[in-house]
Amino acid sequence: MAGLTSSTIGRKYAMALSAIFLLIFLVMHLTVNLLSVFGEDAYNNASQFMGYNPLIQFVMQPVLIFAVVFHFVMGFVLEIKNQKARPVKYESNNPSHNSTWMSRNMIISGAVVLAFIFLHMYDFWFHEMNYKYVDGLPIEESRFWGDLHAKFADAWRVIIYIISFILLGLHLGHGFQSSFQSIGARHPKYTPVIMALGKWYSILIPAGFIFIAIYHFVTQ
């Protein structure tokens, strides 16, 4: 890992791999959460499996936490190094024509998304850890759907989630194709496909989470 992150290229490669891992996780996370729309039992069963399976809890969960921290820390490190490498801006530069607004401000959207992740962990992950390992309460299969439903009873929380997922979508819009480009997946034949997939991914994934939040709010 030290060798991989010792150079700029290595850091970009490592960041891209962590991003692809997180892209896969978002699909899985959305799939489980969508079950809450179709039925309480389906969501409760899936959540119990995810919440008490040793492989998921003690292997996959630490890997996920590491990937999140590594991805965002590495993003900030790369941004700082890029700024130091070019302390004086070019005299002739037209950012709006050379790149998109999001590609120039990934660090901003990333910081907002990171703040949202902490809120999301406070809402669900810390609550779950406290329930299982601090209070040591027994397994209650029917509690998961009720906990999720109750979180979206307040309009302000739903609004925060909606805004955060819109920013996540903008972040993904550039980050998806950038991740594949960083690992060398760039070819005249395949790049347009990757760009199209990235566009739809950055729309559908946030839209799915927004739909879930709104659904639980209006069905209180």
TrEMBL record:
Protein origin, superkingdom: Bacteria
Gene3D superfamilies recorded:
Fumarate reductase/succinate dehydrogenase, transmembrane subunit
Q: Where are the transmembrane segments?
A: 12-38, 58-80, 101-122, 155-176, 197-218
Keywords of the record, alphabetical order, are: Membrane, Transmembrane, Transmembrane helix
UniProt xrefs under CDD domains: SQR_TypeB_2_TM
Q: Where is the signal peptide?
A: none
A GO cellular component annotation in the UniProt record = membrane
| NCBIfam families, per the entry | sdhC_b558_fam
The protein's name in its UniProt record = Succinate dehydrogenase / fumarate reductase cytochrome b subunit
Q: What is the lineage of its organism?
A: Bacteria, Pseudomonadati, Bacteroidota, Flavobacteriia, Flavobacteriales
